[in-house]
UniProtKB/TrEMBL annotation:
GO terms for cellular component: membrane protein complex; plasma membrane. This is ABC transporter related protein. Residues 5-237 form the ABC transporter domain. Coiled coil: none annotated.
Length: 238
């Protein structure tokens, strides 16, 4: 399998006055095309910081990040933003949808800066919403008119409408009941089966056990890489 993301000896140190916090301590990690990976660990272990590095949302204090073999730590901020916008889609625990916009307008947001004509944007929005397990009847609604599980599928549609190669999800089922979490996890598996490399930060072992690889993070270090137990996946336990 070909490499999509590689981190080499990544350190991330935050300094506030005289206080120094080492959020990541020499993390080295390779994610291959088509991987479905869970990142687990206690609060403060560095999971969100690691996801920010994988998503090019923050720069490491030291170390290198490669996307498809390209050293992005050597690029300008504008070049990094272009790689991030074209290669990576993000899904967040809080959905991050704009309630004054319709579902259609929320999903098309990543396409507008690309200058894509409106008719093509609408077609891609409909396709993305279908892929995310949503319904076209949602398109004229506001996000706050939908359930939490429906909003998260809208957020997934927004993440994939730009046709990224990588999906990064930060606690995507953290605000959902188990039935909605199951539907969202089914959606991630379907997208991964269609070829999208997917990395999920989660506290929930029933979500992590639906993936193909579990990274256990503690004190900013990957302590182990474990095989999931499919029998404990949320899709099997309900």
């Amino acid at each position: 399998m070909s490499e999509v993301i590689r981190l080499e000896n990544i350190w991330k140190i935050y300094r506030v006055g005289d206080v120094e916090t080492k959020a990541l301590r020499g993390v080295t990690l390779t994610v291959n095309r088509g991987d479905l990976v869970a990142i687990m660990g206690p609060s403060g272990s560095g999971k969100s910081t690691l996801l920010n590095m994988l998503g090019l949302l923050d720069k490491p204090t030291s170390g290198k990040i490669f996307i498809e073999g390209r050293d992005v730590t050597a690029l300008s901020s504008n070049e990094v933003a272009d790689v991030r916008n074209r290669k990576i889609g993000f899904v967040f625990q809080q959905f991050n949808l704009v309630n004054r916009l319709t579902v259609l307008e929320n999903i098309e947001l990543p396409l507008i800066p690309r200058g894509i004509p409106r008719a093509i944007r609408v077609r891609r929005v409909v396709e993305a919403l279908r892929m995310a397990g949503g319904d076209e009847s949602w398109l004229p609604k506001r996000p706050n008119q939908l359930s939490g599980g429906q909003q998260q599928r809208v957020a997934i549609a927004r993440a994939i409408v730009g046709e990224p190669e990588i999906i990064l999800a930060d606690e995507p089922t953290g605000n959902l009941d188990r039935a909605s979490a199951k539907l969202v996890m089914e959606t991630f598996i379907k997208l991964n089966n269609a070829g999208l490399t997917t990395i999920i930060v989660t506290h929930d072992p029933e979500i992590a056990n639906c993936t193909r690889k579990i990274l256990l993070l503690r004190d900013g270090v990957i302590k182990s890489v474990e095989d999931p137990n499919p029998e404990k996946c949320i899709l099997r336990t309900m």
